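Subject: two folds for Thursday's group meeting

Dear M.,

Sorry for the delay on this. The cluster queue was jammed most of the week, so I only got both jobs back this morning. I'm pasting them in the order they finished. Each block is the input sequence followed by the predicted structure tokens. Could you check whether the formatting survives your parser before we put anything on slides? The first protein is the one we discussed after the seminar.
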Amino acid sequence: MSLRLPATLLLAGQLLFVLVTLLHTGGPANDHPAVFAEYAGSRAWTAVHLGQFSAMATLLAGLFALFFALEVPAGSARWAGRFGAASAVATLSLYGILQAVDGVALKQAVNAWAGAPDAEKAARFASAEAIRWLEWGVRSYHDFAMGLALLLLAAAVARAVGVPRPIAYLMGLSGLTYLAQGWVGGDEGFTQTQTIFIVLAFVLSLAWMIWLIVVAWRTRDSRTV
């Protein structure tokens, strides 16, 4: 398999994810009364979350395919790549659950809260908040799985033929930022600290993905699937 396919999928998925996420309804994420009101008023909610899922699926398909495109000698690095590819599959599964919780269940809960009579609002709010905390949990473990996938595949890339080793270092750093997101998200929710790690992950990921696609398209690759 040519390195061009995974490199293209990775960069396309990451760019699409960033662009779609910019359309996500904003607000003080841990101020639940305020942000739930914003969510209830969003008309683009379903489309944005479907777009995020599509983008993440594209990115993770690229990450999975990357292992099969690498020329890695047999040994620990190749096994790390295999486990990294498996972690990418697990990450997509967790992201699907995350979008079911956030993109569907949370939206229905905040809509019910916003439209409920005063006597029911407290109970409806409690339900929406419970779903929000479930979102924290799923998002946390999705980030852990993503970080693990990146770290394991970075170990394979570091030993791969024809791929500059600094790409592996940037992959590893981006993996660490996902692990940090997972820890902060599970402990504190969607805080400013988590936002910093999210932005760092975007920047580091775009850096190594752009570098990888340049390498892929500059290198003549006669390998076939």
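Second protein, same layout:
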Amino acid sequence: MHALIVVAHHDPQSLTHSIALQAAAGLTAAGHSFEIADLAAEGFDPRYGAADQRVHRGLATPPADVLAEQARIDRADALVLAFPIYWWSLPGLLKGWVDRVFVNGWAIDYGPNRPVVKKLRHLNVHLLAVGAADESAFDRHGYATAMRTQIDHGIFDYCGAKVLTSELLLESESGTAEAHLRTAHAVGQGLFQQETVAG
């Protein structure tokens, strides 16, 4: 089976990139294939503009860069997102990717006089979020719940996709990197076992 791993970090030496590579190594060890979409290195433009709004309104087809991202997702049996937590959410690069790629007509289908149709029910999603704060900060302020509400439910469930992994890899600046890399490898290795169980 095949996974698309989307990594959203400007520094190729970052822990986020290493986590994406470990997930890829786990997939390879389990006999699966992968593609890495390095949004920063590839120069993906996350700015949602007037052309994107026309697509949303059903007045235009998505531009070439968006169609290319949708095609990568369509080729994949699973989607893995590896990203740093910025201000308790997705970094702007990844949020803009979601805004522009998960559009009306492809991820969902709706209009003024009809309900939302969730078009990504076939897609299984795995989230690997890297944060510097510790678990107590996330629990104390409700950040973990808020992130799962806005990302797992608010984005992916809204489109019908199933979030099978939602890992908060915390205290990333306090000597936990090796443990996080092991977790990412295990997620990659077990990625499609999880999907078999969930399916």
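Two things I noticed about the second structure. The chain is about 45% helix and 20% strand. The helical segments are 15-29, 39-42, 50-56, 64-75, 92-101, 135-141, 143-159, 177-198.

Cheers,
T.
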